[in-house]
Amino acid sequence: MRTTTTLEIDAAHPALAGHFPGAPILPGVVLLDETVRAVERAGARGPTRWTVGAAKFLKPVHPGEVLTLEHERLPNGSIRFALSSAGRAVAQGVLRPAPQEALAAAGPAPAGPAPAADAGAAGAAPAAPRTSATHWARARERGNALTFSIMAFLSLKLGRRVARGLLYGIAAYFLVFAPTARRHGREYLRRALGREPRVRDSFRQIFAFASTVLDRLYLLKERFELFAVTTEGETLMRAAAARGTGAFLLGAHLGSFEVMSAVGRKQPGLRVAMAMYQDTASRLTLLTRGGDPARAPEIIPLGHLGAMLRIRDCLDAGGFVGMLADRTIGEAPAQRVSFLGRPALLPSGPMRAAAALRRPVYFMTGLYRGANRYHVVFREIADFSTLARGEREARIEAAIHRYAALLEEYCRSDPYNWFNFYDFWHEETGARAAGAAA
Asked: Is pTM beyond 0.90 here?
């Protein structure tokens, strides 16, 4: 049920004093915080800890402005909200329960169909089943902190050659005892290879994944001498760094994210931050524990109100912000694209962030090519430094299609580097939904 309330921005709000002197505008992060408070005052059932699933700011908010807030609870416990002022849209988005409280917040699903996707989010895909999106976000990697610690200790003590020998058994284990991941991996391979995959193909994909996980440990410990890394597009990145305006680096679960970050950390004075969700950030923290804190990779946890401010600060300092942009989550805005011959959903949030901050965007991938060999690729996607009035949405859409085309190109050239072992095309979810509707 949709609830409507009012939200007034006090002219004496402390956030307005320095934002900006002489022309005060309420910061977006404060507007989100006020929205959360108003939702909770209105009695929306749910947790007291929220993350931002999606947020789009459409109009500045000035001191003393009275806003109309409309919000409704979704079946999974999230809150969809929309703010307006005198009939003009101000902001819209989705608040998600923090991961550990998500299931408690969802409660029993209400009867009837789920609410349709927000029609106001230009470029967003129409409502579609997204079980796979929530699946990857909630799924936990097999093993625990103790397992990670033991494997890290043995790998560092025994050396990479011995540790790699253990990977054959690990890959064989998952090939046999992870049928769901194997099935989704085969569906991808069928499209990337253009033929029916054999057992050997599935094993090569799982082994490549296991190899990059192992090498993640050595890369985060800065054991760069163990690897032979070639680069493509390095001149492009050097020119971007020389301009000092900052840029987004958008990758995917294709190859190794850490080898790309390692390339950046080897450049003196270059700041490279990785924006990722909290669970992944926690695992990286575990792996780097005991190392030099000054040399640890900078991580910006997504889903927190301050994430966008930290991203902006990094860019303003001339740094690069890396993000993986191939997985949708919850009700966050997404765009439908053609990928490996079938429709797929890609998140539009990263491109919207780049457009809002008026920064260039580059595609990045660190392809694993066997043994100790990696090939790092940088390609230009879009430059949002200059945006003419009225062209924003078209430019964002074109950039997402460009990203999808580059992702497909490298999936076909290096097919065993794809590490999305879930229903990426949402076909099983769609089939279940169609069966239920019938």
From this structure: no
